[in-house]
Structure formats: C-alpha cells, structure tokens
Amino acid sequence: MPVPQNKYSLFQKSFLSILLIFVVSITNAQNIKFSFLFDSGKDRVALWEARDFFKLIKGIKADSISIQGHCDSVGSDAYNLKLSKQRVQAVKSMLLHNGIKAKQIKIMKGFGEQQNINDNSTEDNRLRNRRVEVYVNEVPKIEKPIIPKVEKPKPEKKTIAKQKPEPKQIAKAIPKKVEQPIDIKYATFQQGEKIFLPNLTFEGQRHHLTALGEEAFMQLLAKIKENPEIQFLIVGHICCVNPYAGDAMDIDVGTQNLSEMRAKEIYDRLADAGIEKSRMKYFGKAATEKIYPYELTSFEASMNRRVEIIIVK
C-alpha cells in the first residue's frame, strides 16, 4: 500500500531533524590555541603561563595536541631553528609533567624565525615572535540524538496571550577599561590627580629608562620641584600579559616584580635628585590596570607599559 504523501513528508522532516541533531552533537568540540612567550635566547616556560594554559583547558579531553615553536630574528637561522626546537621540547616536558599523555601529542615542530607574526623592530614585537603555539583539539562529543515525537496536531484554542514583562538586560562581561590618566603637560598637581608621562619609557623586560625616558624623567623632576608641597605615589604598570597572571620578570635582577622595579627606579632617581623620600611612596600593579585591555598596536602597548604619579596631598 503506498505511503500517503503527507505522511511521507512528515517522515522526511523527522529523519532530517534527527540527522541534524546528530551532526551538531558530533561536531560540538572545542579547538583551543594558546601561545607561550619566552625571554630572548631562553627556552624556559613561565610558571604563570603554564597555570593559565591548564586553567584554559580544564575539563577538556584532548584528542590531539600540536606544539609549534618560533623565534625572533636575533641570531643566525641555524641558532634560531635549534632554539625553537628546544622551546617546543620545554613545553612538551611541562605538559607531560602535568598529566598530558605522550600519545596525545601528535605534532612537534620548530620553525626558527620563518613564521614571525610581527616585524622585529621593537622589543614588544620580538617578544610576540618568541613563542610556542599549542593547539588542543578536543575529543568530539557524541551525544545521544533526541528523536522528535510526532503527534497528531490538535485543534487550536483561542486564548488571550498574557503580556510578559520585559526581561532584564544582562550586561556583557568585558574587561574593565581604566580611565586614562592626565598628560603631565596638562596636570595641575591637585589631590587625587593621576598623571602620566607619555615618553617615560623603559627597555623591554628591564627597569632601565630608554634615552627618551631619560628626557621625560627630567621633565617630571622639574614639575615636582615646582610643587614642593605635594606628596605622591609612584605606580608602575606593565603591558602585554594576562591581568591575572601576576607581575613579569625583571631580567636585570631575575625577580618577578617588573612593575614594582620600574616604579622604584623613578623613586630612587627622584631621591638622588634631592626629593625627600617622605613625600613619596612606590609600588607596582603589574597588568591589573591596563588603559587598553587588549594591546592591538605598539602605541597601546606603550600606554599600558607606564609609570604614573598619583597626587595624594
């Protein structure tokens, strides 16, 4: 007996619904990329980056992991190729030490400086090139398909729909953007004022001022001498790291407090120039108060990598 056309169409729709649910369920897997950054010429994995990586993949069952190492342009091609492979091996050892199985790691390759993502004109750009990229592919989640129940349509009842209240708007969770401080050129040095020197710049991963930073420091010193009654805080900040990862390493002293050391450098120089220590205090805030939550340009990175003066009295 032939199947009536209307029942056949309903059967087709049901089958396609089951197939669609099955396809969506089987492809519902995550693919995650994480970049480990390295000091120049080094292959040591930062502990805070390892911690962030395992937070990111928590609860994920990895099907395959790919590890790809890269370098900046400092050094010869042969040196950088060898160094990129050493960085890959360092990341692999860290993964194995923390519970990743060797059979999950499918690809390991060092590219040297062949695949730089930035030019190497600045330390920030070189830092982003000194990386190991880890790609984690999750085991596909195959869920039991839900078979829709086909029921005979019921006659519609005329009812008066009740008006539902408007749902409350839920604000999106976005990184907090810190209010931009005042350029020292426009500062009045009043209590509560947060002052910024755009050119007070430091060498990458160090607490030493650049040549441009030296000029900016002399400008700061002159302004503080013009306002002998003020008391102030010197606050150091860094860029280009996760705000929850803690402070960065100062390669000059080997300590994990770069933002504090940069603030202390200004404190010491002001004291050496005759500013009373009782008028000032210093501390570091790492990357917890970025002006730009995500540094997309070298300008935004330089604005986050700063020392601010806060007038307290």
Describe this protein's structure:
By secondary structure, this protein is an alpha/beta fold. Helix content is 31%, strand content 16%. The protein is globular, with a radius of gyration of 28 Å.
List keywords for this structure.
313 residues; alpha/beta; 60s Ribosomal Protein L30, Chain: A; 5-stranded mixed sheet; 4-stranded mixed sheet; globular
Brief summary:
The chain has 313 residues and is an alpha/beta fold.
* Shape by Cα distribution: globular
Mean pLDDT: 79
Residue share in helices?
A: 25-40%
Strand content: 15-25%
CATH homology superfamily name of the largest domain: OmpA-like domain
What is the gyration radius calculated from CA atoms?
Answer: 28 Å
Q: Label the structural class.
A: alpha/beta
The strands making up the biggest β-sheet line up spatially as 5-6-9-7-8
CATH topology of the largest domain: 60s Ribosomal Protein L30, Chain: A
CATH architecture assignment of the largest domain: 2-Layer Sandwich
Low-pLDDT segments, ≥5 res: 1-27, 165-177
Q: Order of SSEs, N→C? A: HEHEHEHEEEHEHEHE
Number of helices: 7
Distance between the termini: 95 Å
For the secondary structure, the number of strands is: 9
CATH class of the largest domain: Alpha Beta
What's the main sheet like?
5 strands, mixed
Number of domains: 2
